[in-house]
Specification:
It is built from 3 helices and 6 strands, in the order H-E-E-H-E-H-E-E-E. With 159 residues, it is α+β, with helices and mostly antiparallel strands. It has a 6-stranded mixed beta sheet, with helices on both faces.
């Protein structure tokens, strides 16, 4: 008798994609994501630039610039897995974020990286989710927790 799913059985459910940030946002997370936004504002001068996925914390992170775009979800998962493995040696509490141009609303690039990022984090047993960072601020595409600035400036004495 063949072994396989029963006829009429529901398909195997994938675990849900976890939110990276919950309200209220803890101070450390807010500071790290503000720094990631500021790093993008100060470091990227082009109006249009390719998305990049980062793992770690600003100043101590591994990154992959998506130029050309990674077309396969499995390859994106491998990229995130490698970045997270590296990030665990760079920061005791790594975050995962995607930088891209545009507004603080869900975009195709966000959704393309969301599933592979969740898979890679689960594979390593890390409680991280994907946060999207633009020049205007950051947001979690799962929980929709966000922070937006009109003009983000470095804090006095931060340098």
């Amino acid at each position: 008798m063949p072994v396989g799913p029963r006829v009429g059985a529901p398909p195997a459910a994938q675990p849900p994609v976890l939110a990276a940030v919950h309200a209220p946002v803890e101070r450390w997370t807010h500071d790290v994501l503000r720094a990631a936004t500021l790093e993008l504002v100060e470091g990227e001068t082009r109006r249009r630039f390719p998305p990049a996925i980062h793992a770690g914390v600003p100043g101590r992170s591994a990154r992959h610039v998506e130029d050309p775009p990674v077309a396969d979800a499995g390859a994106r998962a491998d990229v995130v897995l490698a970045l997270l493995r590296t990030a665990t040696s760079l920061a005791p509490r790594p975050l995962l974020w995607l930088t891209r141009p545009g507004e603080l609303s869900p975009h195709d690039d966000d959704l393309r990286w969301l599933g592979p990022a969740a898979w890679a984090a689960r594979a390593l047993g890390l409680p991280v989710g994907l946060v999207v960072v633009t020049r205007r601020g950051w947001f979690d595409p799962v929980s929709d927790v966000r922070r937006e600035w009109r003009r983000l400036r470095p804090r006095p004495g931060a340098r």
